[in-house]
Write a structure and sequence with these properties.
This protein has 2 helices and 11 strands. By secondary structure, it is of the alpha+beta class. Strands 1, 2, 3, 4, 7, 8, 9, 10 and 11 form a 9-stranded antiparallel β-sheet that branches. A two-stranded antiparallel ribbon has the order 5-6.
């Protein structure tokens, strides 16, 4: 094989290796999900999921019987208004607008910072760990107290 042909083979193998590495990274767990509910404002404790690859990739729900691994709200996860995911210098800022039941403060602008495996509310200072998940299939399982008291 000529040196030129060998060079072509090395480039082709390198390109295939890089493509395979890219595919294997993207097929891993896609979402960052709070391990427990985080106090975002006014005592509102929410579970939050983020897709770091999507600039609007934010979802929230109220925890269910098993915490953030289930939900007490629905029919699905909520996509908040004004959602934004901004990555910079090893961290991520997640922000969105959330309606409240307060006449004096009808909405709050939630701002969360993700550093490594921790998420912190910039308003309340509350902090929870995050874990990676491949899917956002969070089952509706209300806490027992809610199941015993029909509305």
């Amino acid at each position: 094989m000529s040196p030129r042909a060998c060079h072509f083979v090395v480039i082709a193998v390198s390109a295939v290796s890089a493509a395979c590495a890219s595919v294997s990274r993207s097929s891993g767990p896609r979402y960052l999900v709070t391990d427990g509910a985080i106090d975002v404002a006014l005592g509102m404790r929410l579970c939050v999921a983020v897709d770091p690859a999507d600039v609007r990739g934010v979802w929230w729900w109220e925890p269910g019987a098993t915490g953030c691994d289930s939900r007490s709200t629905g029919p699905d996860l909520f996509r908040p208004d004004g959602a934004s995911v901004v990555r910079s210098a090893g961290s991520m800022i997640v922000s969105f607008r959330l309606g409240t039941h307060s006449d004096t403060r009808p909405f709050v602008d939630v701002r969360l910072r993700v550093d490594g495996n921790q998420m912190r509310s910039e308003e309340t200072g509350a902090q929870v760990s995050v874990k990676r998940r491949t899917a956002l299939d969070v089952p509706l399982v209300p806490p027992r107290a809610m199941m015993n008291h029909p509305h």
